[in-house]
Description:
It is a single chain. The protein is mostly beta strands. The protein has helices at residues 181-189, 198-207; strands at residues 28-30, 34-36, 66-71, 74-79, 83-84, 88-89, 96-101, 107-113, 144-151, 154-162, 168-176, 217-222, 225-231, 241-246, 254-258, 260-261, 266-267, 276-279, 285-291, 296-302, 310-315, 327-330, 336-341, 347-352, 360-363. The strands form 5 sheets. It has a 10-stranded mixed β-sheet with strand order 15-14-13-12-2-1-22-23-24-25, with no helix packed on it. Mean pLDDT is 76; it is low at 1-60.
Amino acid sequence: MIRKSHMGVIVGLSTLMLAGCGTTTPSATAKSGTTSGSNLAFTSNTTTVSHSASSIPSSAKAPTNTKSLTMGSLTLWLPSSWTIGPPSSALAPGANKVTATSSTGARVTVHQIKPIDEDVFALLPQLPKPTGLTSNAENQSPYFTESKQIMSGVVYASFSELTATGTEYAVNVQIPVNQAKLVGSILHSIKAPTPATVSQALHLLDKSASPSAGIPITTAKFGSERWVLAGGAPATAQEGWFLFRSLNNGNHWSLIGHTTWSASAPTFPNSVGNPTMLFWNASDGVIVQPSFASPALLVYWTRNGGQSWQETTVRYGQPGNVFTTPKVTREANGQLVITATLNSKATMTFTSQDGGSHWSTASK
């Protein structure tokens, strides 16, 4: 499950202020809080996700009648009759892989990639989890996934993790269903580093920042609190989006929201856009996103620091969509003001007197 790097627009991750310092771009401002915006789409959910991690199960000794396959800091054991090929380049630049095969058509491929250099999207959490999860306790980490499913007489299993040092490992297993017990043996034999914590991954994300990195980012701050909104590839609405929060100037981070999918579409919201985010105290904030599906803005507002969000649609009643990041400000009297420019160059202004739940058109 190696992932190719995506090229796209990014705001410099120095704006994340992960250590409580840096600058932001003026997409949105408030008297008591500041934020930055970039070209990205936002989706989130209301679930707080645990980011604790423990050591991946490992064997003290190699199982009998086996041979080891090692890639970087990851080792697993295979039946001694298998053939292990030489390391080779994978799809993504800078990535490596090793493939092992058996005479019965079974196959195991191990990928190693440095996302901090080549695949920064691997620095995002691996959520939501796929179906068919195993009982591995590491699945509590948002930077670890282990899954298994059966299709057309073949068992497909995968192991994927991001380490604290910024290396991604992915193990893909394909074994005929009549040898299904071998899948568990291989997965349980894996010895690998502990998955990254949310704080470690956010600092890696900051360290990886470059104009070509491709991860859309928008940030906000109030006092010692920080919020970071990071998304998947902007070319599709099916990528996940993640909301992080720090209470101590970016020294420690928690993942407080991420995309979930219904049977037909991702939720909150379900379209790609260019959001901006503003918090004016530790509890109250808004995210404003253009809708590319209709002449409207999607406004999300929170009263609990981003743990949960409500959506309001602001329609502007004239043709043309917003293709730039809207600007949102908060005035001294508490009024919120959104300024959005349509692709026709017309400017729309909207105001809210109640913290973002209701909006009025100020001008056209």
